[in-house]
Write the structure tokens for this entry.
Amino acid sequence: MTAKEPNAEPYEGARPRAQAAFAPDWPPADELVAAALRQAIADGSWGRYHGPHGPRLAAALAEFFQTEFVSLCCSGTFAVQLALRGLRIEPGDEVLLAGYDFPGNFRSIEALGAMPVLVDLAPRNCNLAPLQLETARGPRTRAVLVSHLHGGLVRMRELCAWAREHRLAVIEDICQAPGAVVEGRPAGTWGDVGVLSFGGSKLLTAGRGGAIFTRHAEIYQRAKIFCEQGNHAFPLSELQAAILAPQLARLPERNRRRTASVALLRRELADIPCLKWFETDAAPCEPVYYKLGFQFDATAAGCSREAFLAAAQAAGIPIDAGFRGFLHRGPRRCRRAGELTEAARAAAGTVVLHHPVLLQPDDVIQQLAQTLRQICSDLPGQVRP
Ligand SMILES: Cc1ncc(COP(=O)(O)O)c(C=O)c1O
């Protein structure tokens, strides 16, 4: 195999990196990250098992989330599993989760021999509905695994009050929402354990990586013992930790910029009948945008979600279908609480706009809105403006 030309175009897999304004590169060029890399090369920490970067990142995350203990690991998917292990979930236990969620969360529950129990979503916001939890609870229920998805937020005060009443543990997955605030409190700190991802598309990225954080020493200890296995078996490397610290410092400013872009998009696209915005809570909430979700109304559009996505993608818009949800999984693998009508609607109709465009200037956001408006007005069922 020949070495790659030094000036060859950077590749993401086999695909040339997108250059279009609607799909800027992710991660963006970042002088602070470049400086951290240079420093790690100069001091040799890039190639060591142990060094200052992991402990520094853990301390910075503990401060950011106002929590006690942080355990860094190899992915968000594994972090969910680690959180379940930290809570001593055992074979035969039941863990409640939304009927529409990241697929790995279902698998992580299964990985412990536990049974996922599917709960419905709040209408029109694609996130678990705390009011539906009681219908799901059974004698073997031990925990709730809850994610904040697609720019929506779960009503954590309600959820945690219910969980406390029934002595159930809560894992709060903020892989899509680092820095979000729910009713005045950082998302991730409402439950017993918070979960983060540092995957390649995430708002804090090291290509791969994850973390859990908690105020409970015993959860942290159990997670630590599981990870060690004579070595650190599921690590975040020193080099990964070194490049995450400067991104954490920039996160609030970038989240504000993304939020401003979403507000602009919302104003520009408010009246498009086939793209329905998620409802957000009136309580003091600050969502964070990793994938900006909409409900696509195929009846209003007069065409399928897939036809709309194909048209938008052809115009260079980085938009995709949401998750498939878990409704097709059989009764041997999970239990369902009720009809799960909203979860079915979310699986069939959610579309998600990828976040990198949200850091672009207002004129690009306006252009994006105009392009989406045009695509929607060209769909068969749309009333032309
Ligand atoms: C809600 C949610 N949880 C967990 C994960 C898993 O993170 P990772 O890709 O780091 O395994 C993701 C990834 O997209 C996610 O969206």
Q: What stands out?
A: The pocket of pyridoxal-5'-phosphate is lined by residues 75-77, 80, 102, 104-105, 147, 173, 175-176, 197, 199, 210 (CB under 6 Å). Confidence is low (pLDDT under 50) at residues 1-19. DSSP finds twelve helices and 16 strands in the chain.
